[in-house]
Amino acid sequence: MLPLVLVACALATVLTMSHALLRASSSHPPFELGWVLRVGSALLLYAAVFFAYSIILKYFDLSVLYPTYTSLSILGVFLVGVLYFGEQFTMAKLAGMVAIILGVGLMAS
């Protein structure tokens, strides 16, 4: 189980970074250098995740790995949104995160 969690955390971290870069690109006009760099970097990270994911699937069940790494990515995006981009934190969002984590935990067991 630990290898699955470590792999899922690595995939989720890279995916979260790509989402953060896309969010950061929104503060730049399209096709200006800052926008191009952020969007280009996000696309490279997405490509890296899907390339790694295609290889990693040989070693883990799809039905467990995919929900685990995507839910961790959702949690990461939530944290980046609140802590870095100053998005609103609500108890409803927190309850949603807890529900996602519990649901994935049930699927993985």
TrEMBL record:
Protein's UniProt name: SMR family transporter
Subcellular location: Cell membrane
The organism of origin for this protein: Massilia agilis
Family: Belongs to the drug/metabolite transporter (DMT) superfamily. Small multidrug resistance (SMR) (TC 2.A.7.1) family.
Entry keywords, A to Z: Membrane, Transmembrane, Transmembrane helix
Membrane spanning stretches: 36-57, 64-85, 91-108
Pfam families, per the entry: Multi_Drug_Res
Gene3D superfamilies hit by this protein: 1.10.3730.20
Lipid bilayer topology: Multi-pass membrane protein
Main location: membrane
InterPro entries: EmrE-like, Small_multidrug_res
